[in-house]
Amino acid sequence: MDHTFWLERWQKADIGFHQATAHDLLERHWPSLAVNKGAQIHVPLCGKSLDMVWLAEHGHTIIGTELAAVAVDQFFAERSRTPAAVKSSGFTVKRAGPYEIWCGDHLRLDPEVTRRIGGVFDRAALVAMPRVMQKDYAEKLASLTPTGVPVLLVTLDYDPSEMDGPPFPIPPQRVEELFGHNFRITLLEQRDGLSTSQNLKKRGVSRLNEAAWKLVRR
Ligand SMILES: C[S@@+](CC[C@H](N)C(=O)[O-])C[C@H]1O[C@@H](n2cnc3c(N)ncnc32)[C@H](O)[C@@H]1O
Hints:
alpha/beta; Rossmann fold; 9 strands; binds S-adenosylmethionine
């Protein structure tokens, strides 16, 4: 997906991926990662997701990355917060309260930014990447995640002949291929995802496997 695709989606408010609440798999599985209260959490490709709010309400500070300035501005406006903004290494960094969002290309983020994180939450970030970009994304995630730090990853899998992504299908063996050399991988849950995704049902998907994974950086 090129940048224009996402910027236009935000411009047109075509954001069917955005959820009105925090993701239930985050709520259910975050405790099993045993991340210290107060730890900084990295939320790649964060959009304006309520997952960041849930994490902040659970004592964390947030480092998000997001391409679309519209998304970042809406996130702060919807929280009635006026962020301070600075430019750093090609990003515009907006900060207010527990939130710090780096607006720019995630794949260019300097690992120095996430050096002190205690956890990562990836929902609709890996699956937003077309297959040709997934390896770069996975390697970048590894470079941004210090040893011992856990990632909660949510994936979707469906028959690719039924729909063009995004979201793109990530079967279990693909998780192993992308992350196995850098992370210890545990499958936390697999379930039918169609009951909670009317959007993908409408787009023609007849079977959707949603999975939550714990990845711990080696
Ligand atoms: C499918 S949305 C998911 C957003 C969020 N994680 C959520 O659950 O609502 C993918 C997001 O990634 C952003 N994005 C895509 N490519 C990016 C990149 N290279 N760097 C930073 N953000 C990017 C898009 O603008 C979009 O907001």
